């Protein structure tokens, strides 16, 4: 009897292990992240006494914004699977979240995916930004790249579609307004929407996209209807990478007195893989303000320029050292954005240019 009981227990245990193995094969959850920190110095910053000075210290995210996240999927059968992603950004130099009001400030989504593409729901990157990112000269590097001045990056309450069909990529999104805005201000249901498309052939990629932001729900709030559009191209040949994109923007009521904004941003870059471990790239950015409030984003002219250079050396597949420099004219570095939740870049009184440099360490997990 004891022998039969032991055999039964062993059989049940084996069946349980087999079932667990099948479940693990059908579902997956991955913990991932980026840790990126550097030591930086930049000049012509305000000194707090009406003058300017050179400042130095630690910055978070020289090549990529710091983040940790969870992503996973479950096989539902017949080519269908459930997918999810939760991602939170933080400032590694202080340990603070890059957005203290959100637990998962970068991404929080769940959806379904199949041969027809993916449909997801939550706080997500807009297709316009996702499609433009490959055409950033410094590959959407956080420190010396004016990421916030391009397409709208993320959207709350959004439904996002993404599909790949041969060499064609398609994307579209629709973002609802908050219930509170609809109830308190009688706002329309639509908050934002956009579309994007791309095509790959050989070593060449081209993409374009459009985003529209509706009027703010609160009539007392600054900001109005917004339009953003871009077109970009990238050519990978041998050890070289050539990229370029143009973004057009029109926003209502961006400053005092209801001033509007119309601008075009140009970005071009050249990258070269010197060795399997060493990569160098140079970038140039120009934002031409056709219509903007005086001193908008710290600018001193209607044309803002920035030059940047980045060199990265891989110590392993996951760890790299890098050095980067930037010089901005007619305004501060990145038009003021720090991109990491840290102290924004700003010009001291009477200054019209700014130069910065950093050396850093990045680790992926």
Characterization of the model:
This protein has one domain: Porin, CATH 2.40.160.10. The N terminus is likely disordered. It is mainly beta and 365 residues long. A hairpin with a 2-residue loop joins β5 and β6. Helices cover 10% and strands 54% of the residues.
Which whole number gives the mean pLDDT? 90
The CATH class: Mainly Beta
Question: DSSP strand (E) fraction?
Answer: over 45%
Give Rg in angstroms.
24 Å
Q: Please trace the helix and strand order, writing H or E for each element.
A: HEEEEEEHEEHEEEEEEEEE
List the domain count as a whole number.
1
- Oligomer designation: single chain
Q: Could you give a short account of the major beta sheet?
A: 16 strands, antiparallel, barrel
- The CATH topology name reads Porin
Q: Unreliable runs, pLDDT <50, ≥5 residues?
A: 1-25
CATH architecture: Beta Barrel
Number of helices: 3
Helix and strand composition category: mainly beta
Question: What's the total number of strands?
Answer: 17
CATH superfamily: Porin
Helical percentage: 10-25%
Key attributes of the depicted protein:
16-stranded antiparallel β-barrel; single chain; mainly beta; disordered N terminus; Porin; 365 residues
Produce a short descriptive summary:
Helix content is 10%, strand content 54%. The protein is mainly beta and 365 residues long.
Layout of strands and helices, then pairs:
Layout: H1 2-26, E1 27-46, E2 52-60, E3 67-77, E4 80-89, E5 107-114, E6 117-125, H2 127-132, E7 154-165, E8 168-176, H3 179-185, E9 190-201, E10 204-213, E11 226-237, E12 240-251, E13 261-273, E14 278-291, E15 303-314, E16 319-329, E17 353-364
């Amino acid at each position: 009897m004891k022998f039969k009981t032991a055999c039964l227990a062993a059989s049940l245990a084996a069946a349980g292990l087999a079932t667990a193995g099948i479940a693990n094969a059908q579902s997956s959850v991955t913990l991932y992240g980026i840790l990126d920190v550097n030591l930086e110095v930049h000049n012509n910053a305000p000194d707090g006494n009406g003058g300017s000075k050179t400042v130095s210290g630690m910055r978070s995210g020289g090549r990529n914004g710091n983040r940790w996240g969870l992503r996973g999927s479950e096989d539902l059968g017949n080519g269908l699977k459930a997918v999810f992603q939760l991602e939170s950004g933080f400032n590694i130099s202080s340990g603070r979240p890059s957005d203290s009001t959100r637990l998962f400030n970068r991404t929080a989504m769940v959806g379904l995916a199949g041969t027809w593409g993916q449909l997801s729901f939550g706080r997500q990157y807009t297709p316009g930004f996702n499609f433009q990112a490959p055409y950033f000269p410094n590959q959407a590097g956080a420190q010396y790249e004016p990421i916030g001045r391009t397409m709208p990056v993320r959207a709350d309450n959004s439904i996002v579609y993404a599909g790949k069909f041969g060499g064609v990529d398609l994307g579209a999104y629709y973002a609802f307004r908050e219930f509170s805005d609809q109830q308190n201000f009688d706002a329309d249901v639509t908050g934002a929407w956009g579309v994007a498309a791309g095509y790959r052939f050989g070593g060449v990629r081209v993409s374009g996209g459009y985003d529209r932001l509706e009027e703010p729900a609160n009539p007392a709030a600054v900001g109005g209807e917004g339009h953003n559009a871009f077109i970009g191209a990238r050519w990978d040949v041998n050890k070289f990478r050539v990229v370029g994109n143009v973004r057009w923007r029109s926003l209502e009521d961006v400053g005092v007195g209801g001033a509007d904004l119309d601008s075009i941003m140009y970005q071009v870059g050249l990258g070269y893989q010197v060795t399997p471990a060493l990569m160098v790239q140079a970038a140039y950015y120009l934002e031409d303000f056709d219509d903007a409030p005086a001193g908008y984003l710290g600018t001193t002219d209607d044309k803002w320029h920035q030059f940047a250079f980045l060199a990265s050396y891989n110590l392993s597949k996951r760890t790299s050292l890098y050095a980067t420099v930037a010089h901005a004219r007619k305004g501060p570095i990145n038009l003021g954005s720090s991109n990491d939740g840290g102290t924004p870049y700003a010009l001291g009184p009477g200054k019209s240019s700014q130069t910065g440099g950093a050396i850093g360490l990045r680790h992926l997990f």
